[in-house]
């Protein structure tokens, strides 16, 4: 069985993330969307909330599941028999950063990283940008799965 992980913070998950998950799901027997836990960052959504959102928006993909991990991603890969890391890249800056991590991960455990260029319609899209625009009243409904959009607006209203 070929297994890949798609790691990220996903705070919140966007249409760009979903596009990468769907494309990866067509290439691997199993794809695990891994929410990376960083105790030093406080997200808008908790890890459990992000995992729930991700499970909801990937529910139509039979070979995709959601998990979380605190620590080195290569340790997750070794523990769960994962052969590849799939990373979406939007711009050259993403690639420069991700290439260093891919080379380090390959050197540590031999796990391969595959770079998937984002679809052009999502090339500018980031969770932080979506949160910022939404917090200032901008319409981000076309950038997020409907369920995520509703939860984002509710959370922003709660925090206002």
Automatic annotation (TrEMBL):
Segments crossing the lipid bilayer: none
Residues the record marks as site: Transition state stabilizer: 17
A GO term for molecular function: pantetheine-phosphate adenylyltransferase activity
Any single Pfam family the record assigns to this protein: CTP_transf_like
UniProt entry keywords in alphabetical sequence: ATP-binding, Coenzyme A biosynthesis, Cytoplasm, Magnesium, Nucleotide-binding, Nucleotidyltransferase, Transferase
Binding site for ATP: 9-10, 17, 88-90, 98, 122-128
Catalytic activity: (R)-4'-phosphopantetheine + ATP + H(+) = 3'-dephospho-CoA + diphosphate
Record carries keyword ATP-binding: yes
Chain ranges of the Cytidyltransferase-like domain: 5-132
InterPro entries: Cyt_trans-like, PPAT, Rossmann-like_a/b/a_fold
Coiled-coil region: none
EC number: 2.7.7.3
Binding annotation for substrate: 9, 41, 73, 87
GO cellular component entries: cytoplasm
Role of this protein: Reversibly transfers an adenylyl group from ATP to 4'-phosphopantetheine, yielding dephospho-CoA (dPCoA) and pyrophosphate.
Assembly: Homohexamer.
Annotated protein name in UniProt: Phosphopantetheine adenylyltransferase
């Amino acid at each position: 069985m070929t297994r890949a992980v798609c790691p990220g913070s996903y705070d919140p998950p966007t249409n760009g993330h979903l596009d990468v998950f769907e494309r990866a799901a067509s290439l691997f027997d199993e794809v695990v969307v891994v929410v990376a836990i960083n105790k030093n960052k406080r997200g808008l959504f908790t890890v459990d909330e992000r995992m729930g959102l991700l499970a909801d928006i990937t529910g139509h993909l039979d070979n995709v599941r959601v998990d979380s991990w605190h620590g080195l991603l290569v340790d997750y890969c070794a523990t769960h028999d994962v052969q590849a890391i799939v990373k979406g890249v939007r711009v050259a800056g993403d690639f420069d950063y991700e290439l260093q991590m891919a080379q380090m991960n390959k050197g540590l455990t031999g796990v391969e990283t595959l770079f998937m260029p984002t679809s052009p319609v999502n090339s500018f899209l980031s969770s932080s940008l979506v949160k910022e625009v939404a917090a200032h009243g901008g319409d981000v409904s076309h950038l997020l799965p409907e369920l995520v959009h509703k939860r984002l607006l509710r959370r922003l209203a709660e925090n206002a």
